[in-house]
Amino acid sequence: MTADIAQHLAAIQAEMAARTDRGQVADYIPQLAAVDTAQFGLSVVLADGTQHSTGDSAVPFSIQSISKVFGLAIALGRLGDQLWTRVRREPSGLAFNSILQLESEDGIPRNPFINAGAIVTTDAALARRAPREYLAELLTFVRTAAGDEDIHIDRAVAKSETETGHRNFALAHFLKAEGNLTNAPELVLGAYFHQCAIAMTVDQLARAGRFLAGFQRLIAPERTRRINALMLTCGHYDGSGEFAFRVGLPGKSGVGGGILAIAPGRASIAVWSPGLNAQGNSQLGTEALEMLARRTGWSIFG
Ligand code: GLN
Asked: What is the model's pTM?
């Protein structure tokens, strides 16, 4: 298997390097608009503990919405199933930053991975703590999961989004008006923008996903099962169906161009390429995962 994986990664890397249509960077966050789309990195951790990487696997990138997975794990740890009174578990079929459903559905977001749902989840994870304390817990969680202390928040990215994140301010204020935010919108968004600004390499991110693959016990197994279910159904927003169809694995994307994908019991996979498709998910990242799933037979659908 180890030899096979190295061959698969080399083939995928070669194919991705040749691609000319590499998608568009997320330019609504100025700091992300400057990232070079020529970059590509892929890393896989197997059940035997070995790690296999190719390309720019040691270059840190902004994990953005992938952080929602770790934030959800913390919120569930603090609130348990009570969280589900404030956020649902259904795909939205709309863009990650859409405000459309929020009014007709009384301020209860469809799921914890769209922005509205992640803002509520962050509010819940904050509980009665200062954002600094929540972010410290989040970083400790991610560092423990990755087995690496060298993981930090990129403050320039957080600042950049704080200055331009008007849609998120709109979502947070609407949630507050509907009574689904305990803390002040500015406070919750401060925590949310900093959480999104965590920078990691695919090497680190693949290791941080081990608890979701069942290789490391950080949270209860029934919680990892549920987080994986939400990643499969909601992790790519209005591209979730397409991702399940093409890749067949629970996955969570971020507008920094990263994707964390889980083959339960088999592998934790992280891929990064900054160019995005129309749904805001990494274009080459998706293609690389599709190739990997086809070559390994890791699709959870057989
Ligand atoms: N910080 C980003 C936002 O709120 C995260 C979005 C994403 O990665 N899809 O817009």
From this structure: 0.98
